């Protein structure tokens, strides 16, 4: 029987709404939801105070989770990955996952204006005070300089959701 599981993953600037959308999608599809932020918080509590520490620690969990994600997909269960696919380099990990698991995929690109992202980050700091130290306008500006919107030639099935300020 052909594997029908699909892996969903996200690209979008910091604060675009990737985590919120991923939770909603996982609930709607009755899929397994795996959040990078949750794993990082559990494995490395209070150890991420800057972007470089995030990159270092995030790179450690991907090999740990790769086999686990592939097993879930191979079992025929959809997986919604709340991990950033915000650069070509980050998207290579996702490409390896679906190549190994031979699962279907969908890259959901939340294309949000900077104003929308900054407003959502402001609300997130209030709703999640533990993130206030990291979720700042300065961090948004720093991270956004590396953002690379996904392109069709990368070989992903891309669904774009556009968010504009009103």
Automatic annotation (TrEMBL):
<dbReference type="Pfam" id="PF13671">
    <property type="entry name" value="AAA_33"/>
</dbReference>
<dbReference type="InterPro" id="IPR027417">
    <property type="entry name" value="P-loop_NTPase"/>
</dbReference>
<protein>
    <submittedName>
        <fullName>AAA family ATPase</fullName>
    </submittedName>
</protein>
